[in-house]
């Protein structure tokens, strides 16, 4: 019987945290990337999950990184491990543990942080614990040191905001402020497809093609590919998309279907029924759904605590309460309190609990696996006493399959839009209503035109993310795997097997599907009012910023860029009141806190393990 070595234990633990880091990457970074499209209602949450899964896995498996930096951007010198495979495996295991634990906690509390910056900070903490602070690359180090990496923390969101504002201002000038914006939106759409196609191609060339090596081709070759792709997309949109969207939003033809796009210019001559007064496109307005009773609805207080009443919404008199069992000596004889009602407004937590319960009641009424699981959990609560008591063991056995089902399917049924805009009647809902009131609402027909462009940019961003950012999780795991397999410390470049790319990309997709809603519900419309034309500007602004930084070899978080672009587009409404700076402030705090917290967790773990007493055989 084989005896497991310490390398085997470290490899098992490192694999667990690599998978957890990939899961958090999907639930946090990827979810934030798709939040803009979902918030704009260009795509439904379920459609975003499907497309996000497809393009993340395609980018990771087809053109993902085949080598990984063992020292992650040159933060720790390779000599720090002294050729000891065990120390190297332990270092990257602790880094993954520190980064994944922090990101998991933030995701649980709906605080968006960058998994890239979390891992970089964790590796810096491990480096301090292993070789000391003096050996860690704190400076610029040709764009690979900590100084260069964290410089993007402040610059990238601001630059992305500027680019997003410029693109949205262009859309406003060309389309929104025209006398007939619908026709302008239709006939100028090939121009915006040209811009989107060019930016998307550049994203794949410079951020999503480590295997293809397109970024190492001559300048004329790259320019030809980029302009050819963008121009070709513009021509195709003029031939197929313009006639289709013209029939849909100018003719208001309710009989046109998606497959009619292949008819091309023939759609201009296609006989349409009489123009309908009703719109044939979706409603892109941000609304507050599932309204609760008025925030000022009183409830009765008895002794400082709310009195539970079966008659919801009624005010109750103190004399209606049941008589308390008091001894005669304790009954007041010299004073009788006046008959009055003591009321208070429901707290924010109570209103949110009511909203969640109402949402869960809707889920319990549905058919299918999730409805069954929600009913099972509701009808079989855990009883009093310890969990190991026989009655609670039986209840837990009934609940376990339902808990697994809810964990897998709950996110797909979550009402993202209601969570983003805030529940009506709560302070948060009132704040978001004020923010939305300062944003100009454009016609649904115009916004519908840009929803197609936004889906294109979102899919490309997901493909580039899968190709490039998969290295955040697979890099440390490849190092751990290589050291475990060979028994020697990995060199500066470690080979990445395809099966590792497939496993981690699938784990990223699982995180996006099952837990991504926890980040999406606080992004997008929680910052400013969204619509397809605004969302398209945000995503293109973020993509341009990532490309710009990549040309100077500066790593940057795509999630931070899209957040900055969201604020920039929100400010195009002409007032600071159109942006929820409370949410923006919380994001900034979480970004900054990531650096010391993730680094400290990983560094403390590494310091404890590497200096722990051990005995030689």
From TrEMBL:
Membrane topology of this protein: Multi-pass membrane protein
Alphabetized GO MF terms: phosphate transmembrane transporter activity
UniProt keyword Secreted, yes or no: no
Ranges for region Disordered: 303-338
Keyword entries, A-Z: Membrane, Phosphate transport, Transmembrane, Transmembrane helix, Transport
Keyword Membrane: yes
InterPro entries found in the cross-reference section: Phos_transporter
Top-level taxon of origin: Eukaryota
Location(s), subcellular: Membrane
Biological function: Sodium-phosphate symporter.
Family: Belongs to the inorganic phosphate transporter (PiT) (TC 2.A.20) family.
Name of the featured protein: Phosphate transporter
